[in-house]
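[Meeting: bench + compute handoff]

Bench side (C.D.) handed over the final construct sequence. Compute side (W.E.) agreed to return the predicted structure before the next meeting so the bench team could plan truncations. Sequence as handed over:
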Amino acid sequence: MFSVCTPIAYLLLVVSGERTLWHNYSEGMVLHKWAVVSRSAPPPRGLRPIARTIPTHPRLRPVDYKIPYVLRTFIKDRHTSEVQHLENRGMFAEELSIERSRFPRFHSTFTIQTDGSLNEREFEFAVPPIVTLFHDRLSAHRERQLELAKIGKLRKERNWETEQKGEESVSMACNALAFPYCIPKNMLKRSRVVDPLNSKSSTQGVTSGGG
């Protein structure tokens, strides 16, 4: 059992009789106080700190204990939100930072549209948990349709319904690079799309038509 059998150890073994040095209990092998072999020294505290669980009962927890809370943006996944207030220092700091950068954390945001609809979006950078968007795509389109209805231009004019004729182009169009037997031809230039709500585009259309 021992590599070096000292007289004291031999005496102990003789005295103990049928008792053995090790007793086998349900939790494992227990080394007795009277045994010659001593346990190795316990590791110094603070090498790998164990998180002490704070009891939920207020009379059992320490007097100076404050319930930790963190002001943070809305985090969707439970693990990340629960780990927020922990302080990762020491041995595992680098590993943790590597892991964190490998999987980007998404901050979720609720966007409230002008019409009151609510949708959730995720961003890699920090965003406020709720954003009110006053000029979103849907509202802008609705606003435009209302304005067009006011001036009676809600229904767009189809290209076969229009009376305007395209003006002739100055230079002839020739497709010679793609098709060598192409005959150059004067094509008709399509007129600009005139937006009835945009004064700039309508004036351009008028000037080009007049010229």
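W.E. noted at the follow-up: The first strand starts at residue 22 and ends at 25. C.D. will use this when planning the next construct.
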